[in-house]
Each structure stands twice: as C-alpha cells, then as structure tokens.
Automatic annotation (TrEMBL):
Keyword field: Cytoplasm, Hydrolase, Magnesium
Cited NCBIfam families: nudix-type nucleoside diphosphatase, YffH/AdpP family
Lineage: Eukaryota, Metazoa, Chordata, Craniata, Vertebrata
Protein name: Uridine diphosphate glucose pyrophosphatase NUDT14
Organism: Pseudonaja textilis (Eastern brown snake)
CDD domains xref list: NUDIX_UGPPase_Nudt14
Alphabetized InterPro entries for the sequence: NDP_pyrophosphatase, NUDIX_hydrolase-like_dom_sf, NUDIX_hydrolase_dom
Cofactor(s) essential for the protein: Mg(2+)
EC number: 3.6.1.45
Domain Nudix hydrolase: 38-206
Job description of the protein: Hydrolyzes UDP-glucose to glucose 1-phosphate and UMP and ADP-ribose to ribose 5-phosphate and AMP. The physiological substrate is probably UDP-glucose. Poor activity on other substrates such as ADP-glucose, CDP-glucose, GDP-glucose and GDP-mannose.
Gene encoding the protein: NUDT14
UniProt keyword Magnesium, yes or no: yes
Amino acid sequence: MESIEELALGPCIASQYLRPFRLRYRQNGVSKLWDFMRAHDSVSILIFNISQQCFVVVKQFRPAVYMCEMEEQCPQYFENKTEESWCPLSDVLPASKGITYELCAGIVDQPELSLEEIACKEVLEECGYEVPVTSLKRITSSRSGVGLTGSKQTLFYAQVTDDMKSSEGGGQPEEGEMIEVVEIPLQDSMKFAYDETFPKTMGLIFSFMWFQSNIAPKLQEK
C-alpha cells in the first residue's frame, strides 16, 4: 500500500456519497437532537474459490480507521479543532494503521441495475472473477452504521473457480481505488476471523461463520 503524505484535518461538506443532517425529535416526552449522514445502501459478497479451497477478500486503506488511530495516538490534533479551518498533521502514522480486510463490496448507486448485477460487477472489478448473476446466493441484509448512517447492506455468496478468473482485480484506479486481493485458506479462516492483529469488518467475521454452518458441511460430504 502507498504511504500517507500531506495529511490535514479539515471541514466536512456534503458529497455524492454522504449528506449530513440533524434530526430533532421527541422520545418518551424528552426532546432530542441527533446528527446523522445519509449514505448509499451497499452490497457485499463472500467469495469462495472452490479450486483453491480459499476465501477471496480485499485489503485496502480506510481513512476513517486511520484517523481513529491518529486520534488515539495524537489526540492534540483533535482537541481544539474548528470546522472552518484545515489543520496540517505532522506526526503521520504508517499507512498500515488504516489497512483493513473486508469482503468484496460496493455501493448501490446505479438504479438501472439489480443488487445481484451490482454484486457481480464488484466481484469482477475488485477481485477479477466473472460470476453469473444466476449463481449468486443471497444470504441476508442488515443495517450498518446504525448510529451514523443506518444504511442497508445486502450480503451475497459467490462460489468461483480458477477458470472464472479473467483479471487481477484491484478495483478501478481511475476512481482512486487501491485494492489488494487476498486469499484466506479455508482451514485458516476461523483463526483469521478472530485474530485481532488483522483489522477486519464484522461482516467478514459473520460471513465466515455463516459459511462454516451452511456450506462447509456440504463440502465435507463430497
């Protein structure tokens, strides 16, 4: 992964991905305010390569994770931060502090495509496998970021083979994506899921557990 350069903390404005709002409401007679962000829904895909007996996940830099590490180790930058100014950060941590392991995923921002079509598109772009829409298995949907965005993520399962690999994946560089494809052997997957030295999402941990309960027993029967 690339190093971090010219880091600065600054104001947040609405974008095509996040729109900030403030909700005023009354609950059990008590007036409350709650700040939240409206974000796109998303899809995620648990990919299992049957040829290699491994899971295919992605590894990428997440600015929010990196800045949580920065706040923990360099709290002075956050103590008197104003929304109107940019604050250059000089004590830069290594980029590895913001790296996470995740399922292949993408936002739902193309209304002309079904969730399944978006999922297949993400698998091809990020991991390089051509997956037919009809072969996807829908696992479930859940709410993510319930305190901040409340967006819905739909989880799919895709079983692939080496013959379905058409590219190296890695995302779309023209959109600023820098994604590394990682293979997790099936026999090591649960150890990996609970190893806190590998930062990861709860969706990845849940999907590995789902696989062990729903797919692994069928593989053992063959």
